[in-house]
Amino acid sequence: MWKIRCWYSYPKQLIFVNETSKSELDNARRYAWAKRGERAIVRAPFARGERVSILVACDVSGFVG
User: Fold this and answer.
1) Contact, 42 vs 29, CB < 8 A?
2) Between vectors from CA 53 to CA 51 and to CA 49, what angle results, nearest 5°?
3) Cα–Cα nearest to 64, from 17, 26, 11
4) Model pTM?
């Protein structure tokens, strides 16, 4: 805790950053179950869709922008 306390003096100095992304392939199943001796079939969309990325920053007052 001592190192964290020395790292900043006031909560107003902290900024929290989070990044996330979404594409059409995110909901595709990657694993499947099958009976012994049978092949597991997984159908996934073959899409080269657009990937959307979001970067958000927050401080004690709210969103930074």
Assistant:
1) yes
2) 5
3) 17
4) 0.50
3-state secondary structure of 11: helix
What is the total residue count of the chain? 65
The C-alpha angle with vertex 15 and arms to 12 and 21, in degrees rounded to 5, equals 155
Phi, psi of 5 (to 5 degrees): -65, -35
Coil, strand or helix at 29: coil
Contact 59, 12 (CB under 8 A): yes
62 SS3 class:
strand
Query: 23-61, pLDDT tens digit by residue?
Result: 877 777 778 889 999 998 887 777 777 889 999 999 888
